[in-house]
Amino acid sequence: MPNILHIDASAHYDTSTSRMASAQIVADLGGTVTYRDLSDGALPFVDATWADARLKAPEDRTLDEAAALALSDELIKELQDADTIVIGSPIYNFAGPASLKAWMDLVARPRVTFHYTENGPEGLLKDKKAIIAVASGGVSVGSDADFLTSHLKFFLGFIGITDVEIHTAKDLIAA
Hints:
Elements: E1 3-8, H1 17-29, E2 32-37, H2 48-53, H3 63-81, E3 84-90, H4 98-107, E4 114-117, E5 120-123, E6 129-135, H5 147-158, E7 163-168, H6 169-174
Parallel strand pairs: 1-2, 1-3, 3-6, 6-7
Antiparallel strand pairs: 4-5
């Protein structure tokens, strides 16, 4: 059975189309599920301590720097352990919620989820699949005004996840 990392980013709970669609995807896949709700306010934004600490070898970090990276380490471990990542997200103001961007910032770590080579960056989270359920009340998914899906697809590829499916949440729920 696959290990699934299920991520939801909508600020709405019971009425969220993206949450309903991502839950349906997870149910259809079956497997062991780790759930991460990004809208609960638990993700900090990157600060100077975090930014400096991520560039240091673990043995060179202070206790404060190690503490600053603890949640980032946890989020990365969830990604590393997953075979499939399911993300449910709305489009807010043409892009994803700030909490989803905070998650991306926290899991993009040099020498952990990507590294630089002579040929440019190389993602280190390979052989994984991502399925994204996107809800939008006005912006057509995949249109020029949809900055969420292209950003997510590029970001996931940057960290090594190149097998990415993007679905409109309404289409998934209607099926």
